Amino acid sequence: MNSVAHFLFFVFIITLLITGCEDSPKNVETKAVTLQFQEVYLTENNKRLQADSFPKVRYGTKLKMYITDFKGYNLKKGKAFLGCAVEITDESGKQIQKQEDILKTYETLGITPEDAKNLMTSMVVSTPLEVGKKYFWTARLWDKIGAGEIMAKTQIEVISANPVQITQNGLTIQEAFLISYDSTSQEASRLHNNQVKAGHQLKLHLAGVQGFKQDKNGVIQAGCTLEIRDRNGQLILMYKDMFEPYTKGVQSKEVEQMTLNLVTSKPPQAGERYDLIARIWDKQTEKSAELTLNFEILE
Fold first, then answer.
1. Rounded to whole angstroms, how far apart are CA atoms 52 and 101?
2. What is the mean pLDDT of each run of 10 residues along the chain (299 residues)?
3. Domain limits at 89?
4. Cα angle at 202 between 172 and 268, to 5 degrees?
5. pTM above 0.70, yes or no
6. Do residues 153 and 180 share a domain?
7. Is 177:197 a contact under the CB 8 Å cutoff?
8. Which of 35, 24, 54, 10 is nearest to 151 (CA)?
């Protein structure tokens, strides 16, 4: 096995710091007895995170925590017997999730020193965590046949993993995201990743759209094209210019926030991926902005 402590936790695991190491991150409060390690570090989607501040982690991403050269525990018949408890709380102290011992599976057989030397845990940041909120994660790692233990506590902030990419060329768009609408329950929700439930209607919301040339009455001449294609390049939605009927222009305030209904010529199919490209431009200048998104319809 690659790592005896490798597991997928339905909330998340955040970086664990153990005192007595050579490379200690500054974003975890810790105390330790006996147990030691060489290095601890955290990755988000396999990219190593900075350790000089509490991390902001994107909703829907996969976190991994690595502990290298872990040692200081006792052995019984050449095996280590370790325990690890984790707890997630919100800022008010309310418990979100707790596991008493994620290494309980190895309670009887134990763990070889080779497997225990370099440990890795992983998880996906998702529900019931909420975007924009902060959480505390506390971990306790202990030697079940000795006195060694480690207590670690860190704070994270969950941020949106907005899948919409914005390229600005004179025009600015402060924010763009997809909205998934369930016509059965009549509930709409913002998507924090690129996965859409089958049967839901899609809307593209734009906020803070600015930079157009205005006349003295605040009127602008805007254009907007939008298309969606399947993985074979077949066009299933095309708006050549959504502002074409407004020959006299529109008020700039009407464009600052827009919600575009993505009604396709045929329903997106479950299990398929699609590309969305939208372009907004100022018909009086060369200023523009482009939005791109690749999204998947869930089974």
1. 29
2. 41 37 57 76 78 75 77 94 88 91 92 87 74 84 89 80 86 89 84 80 90 95 93 88 95 91 75 91 96 86
3. 8-159
4. 125
5. no
6. no
7. no
8. 35
